[in-house]
Amino acid sequence: MTNKAITSRVGAGVAAVFAAALVGSAPATAQLEAQFAFGGLLNPFTGESRSTAVSTIQHAGTWALGETFLFLDHTDDRGADGFNDRDIYGEWYPTLSISSLAGRRAGLGPVRDIQVIAGVNIGIVSRVRKYLPGIRLSWDLPGFIFVNTDFTAYRDDSGGVDSGGVPKTGDGWGWDVSWLSIFGLAGQTFQFTGHAEYVSGVGDELGGELNSWVLAQPQLRWDLGEALAGSPNTLHAGFEYQLWLNKLGTDEDENTIQFLLVWIF
User: Fold this and answer.
1) What is the DSSP string of 166-235?
2) What is the C-alpha to C-alpha distance for residues 229 and 72, in angstroms, rounded to an integer?
């Protein structure tokens, strides 16, 4: 694998959006966020960490028959090592809700819905393109606005080395859990949100082997807009903790905290 790679990230959705996506058809609704994260991120191919700025546009929404989630990252570590050098990376996850199709709750017990998911991951500099077909279980759990578990394949449709990108890999599979909880403390409003994933190991076109990895990215957000101006859910501040075991399939582990600002539109 070359030293050109990207940080894969799946963010969590937004409260107002997924609270509306209950059993049956819901009116289309959406929420847009602009995020800025700053902290030390590891280049797993050199073993060095650099102060890195990540700017993100994130959109979460529902439509009559499901949900959609999209984000686009711009990552810059101000280095020139071929990793996180003003890279652009995005993921899109539209779903089709069985409950909405049936007109009634499709899940059993704490499972409130079953959805078909069709994800796509695209990296510009690394020339990565992966498709993630699978199944989502949406859970109804006390204390959470939503909890989703995704089980997907990883189908690599990248151009590989011949296209000037990272080596094309074999197909694998992954599991992801995302969540959102809102709570009050000392008269302030906070959100605990994020995701964690497992991605299977695969081989690449150069004969190399990429390890399976575990990535967790929980966020703790304080509703700063409500605290300062009485305008809830417009500006959040907080931290994102990133634990990445075998980052990008290497033998390197990452354990870091990033400062986070979020503007909500």
Assistant:
1) SPPB--EEEEEEEEEEEEEETTEEEEEEEEEEEE--EEBTTS-EEPPEEEEEEEEEEEHHHHHHS-TTSE
2) 29
| Nearest alpha carbon to residue 215 among 191, 239, 249 | 249
Residue 195: Cβ within 10 Å count = 20
CB neighbours of residue 188 within 10 Å: 12
213-258 pLDDT, tens digit per residue, is 999 999 999 999 999 999 999 999 999 999 999 999 999 999 999 9
Q: How far, in Å, CA of 91 to CA of 124, rounded? A: 12
Indicate the pairing of strand 172-185 with strand 213-223: unpaired
pTM value?
Answer: 0.88
| Burial of 138 (C-beta count, 10 Å sphere; 0-12/13-18/19+) | buried
CA-angle at 156, arms to 68 and 10, nearest 5°? 35
As a CATH number, domain 15-264 is: 2.40.230.20
Which tens digit of pLDDT belongs to each residue from 166-182?
999 999 999 999 999 99
Q: Residues 6 or more apart from 76 whose CB is under 8 A from it?
A: 52, 53, 84, 85, 86, 87
Domains in the chain: boundaries: 15-264
Instruction: Please name the amino acid found at residue 120.
Output: V
Which strand (E) or helix (H) includes residue 131? strand 128-139
**Cα dist. 38→51, 56, 154, 237 in Å?**
7, 11, 29, 12
* CB-CB contact of 149 with 137 (8 Å): yes
Closest CA to 33 of 257, 221, 173, 230: 221
Q: Which two tokens stand for residue 107?
A: 């899940």
